[in-house]
């Protein structure tokens, strides 16, 4: 009999390792469905909360934040593309790629917390940003993502224009930081176990089976 497992997936839309980690986790959960019945909730985390809605050049921001030179940045982007492809997700980077403010995307995700379509919305926003190069700060882009996830587009637009769930998102971000989360993706299982990083499916599967076995003891 599959064991219920609550998973809080803490991540940011602008984080490529979060997209890679989510796909890896999904593959691992499909492989462990014999022992795990998982419920995933997506929790907000902003890596660059001060980025304006129009965004900033990705390469320039990384150079400022991490001190990477252009060659290092290009090598890192290529490694990310390859890892994403290995789990069936397409990331397209170019010299003109930009990074955007993700607060409204997190508000929209909070709107469907507890709805099974939240995962589809998360993946649709990841796809819009990483695969198609569209801005997750653009309300039109987010409405299309909501519709792709099977949600009502007009209801999604109302959430975005109204500013709803802003306080809830801020509170959730502060809560996870207070619990020691300072990098993403961070996967918290049953409020007890932490898996950090965008692991390959095999690593996730090993960790999930170990946690399930430990919890049954």
Major beta-sheet overview: 4 strands, mixed
Percent helix: 40-55%
Please report the first level of CATH classification, the CATH class: Alpha Beta
Q: For the residues shown, what is the average pLDDT?
A: 94
Q: Number of DSSP helices?
A: 9
Question: What integer value in Å does the Rg equal?
Answer: 17 Å
Give the name of the CATH architecture. 3-Layer(aba) Sandwich
- Number of individual domains: 1
- CATH-defined topology: Glutaredoxin
Q: What is the helix/strand order?
A: EHEEHHEHHHHHEEH
Number of strands: 6
Distance between the termini: 15 Å
Structural class, judged by helices and strands? Answer: alpha+beta
Descriptive report:
- This protein is an alpha+beta fold.
- The chain has a single domain (3-216), classed as Glutaredoxin.
- It is 53% helix and 14% strand.
- The chain contains nine helices and six strands, in the order βαββααβαααααββα.
- It has helices at residues 16-31, 58-66, 70-86, 103-111, 118-131, 139-148, 153-162, 166-178, 201-216; strands at 3-11, 36-44, 56-57, 98-99, 186-189, 193-196.
- It has a four-stranded mixed sheet. A two-stranded antiparallel ribbon has the order 3-4.
- The protein is globular and about 50 Å long.
């Amino acid at each position: 009999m599959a064991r219920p497992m609550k998973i809080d997936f803490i991540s940011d839309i602008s984080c490529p390792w979060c997209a890679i980690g989510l796909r890896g986790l999904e593959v691992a959960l499909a492989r462990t469905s014999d022992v795990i019945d998982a419920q995933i909730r997506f929790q907000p985390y902003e890596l660059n909360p001060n980025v304006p809605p129009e965004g900033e050049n990705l390469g320039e921001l990384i150079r400022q934040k991490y001190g990477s030179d252009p060659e290092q940045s290009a090598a890192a982007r290529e490694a990310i593309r390859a890892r994403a492809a290995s789990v069936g997700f397409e990331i397209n980077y170019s010299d003109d790629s930009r990074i955007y403010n993700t607060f409204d995307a997190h508000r929209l995700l909070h709107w469907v917390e507890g709805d099974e379509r939240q995962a589809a919305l998360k993946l649709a926003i990841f796809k819009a940003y990483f695969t198609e190069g569209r801005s997750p700060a653009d309300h039109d882009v987010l409405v299309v993502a909501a519709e792709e996830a099977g949600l009502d587009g007009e209801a999604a637009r109302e959430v975005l224009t109204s500013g709803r769930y802003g306080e809830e998102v801020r509170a959730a971000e502060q809560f996870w930081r207070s619990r020691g989360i300072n990098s993403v993706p961070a996967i918290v299982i049953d409020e007890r176990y932490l898996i950090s990083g965008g692991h390959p499916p095999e690593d996730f599967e090993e960790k999930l089976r170990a946690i399930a076995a430990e919890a049954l003891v």
